[in-house]
Amino acid sequence: MYAMAKRSLNRFTPTSNLFVVPNFFREVSRIVDLWGFLDEYRYSRSEARADHESLKRDYQIVLQNMERVLAEYERKERARARNTRKSA
């Protein structure tokens, strides 16, 4: 299951979502921007395309979380196996 999740994760490249990631300097510059020229939005060609991109990004995040949790589980299992061998 871990290998399958990792293969699926590698199929996706980072996608651009419809939200702009906050940035400290961008936010500071908005204080000076009295007319709102610095507002930046990302648009998609269609609503279906935007939904597809969002779902793909969500799937990618879920797979990344699964990969992290499975790696942590494997690490704990190895440590537990080492401890049981030492105590035996």
Question: Which descriptors would you attach to this protein?
Answer:
single chain; 88 residues; mainly alpha; 3 helices; 68% helix
User: Structural class given helices, strands, pairing?
Assistant: mainly alpha
Beta-strand content estimate: under 5%
**Integer average pLDDT:** 77
Largest sheet: none
Count of domains: 1
Radius of gyration (CA) equals 21 Å
Contiguous low-pLDDT stretches (5 residues minimum) are 12-16
Order of helices and strands: HHH
What is the β-strand count?
Answer: 0
What does this entry look like structurally?
With 88 residues, the protein is mainly alpha-helical. It has one domain. Helices cover 68% and strands 0% of the residues. It is built from 3 helices and no strands. The protein is elongated, with a radius of gyration of 21 Å.
Helix-strand layout with pairing:
Elements (H helix, E strand, L loop, with lengths): L1 H10 L12 H9 L14 H41 L1
Helix pairs in contact: 1-3
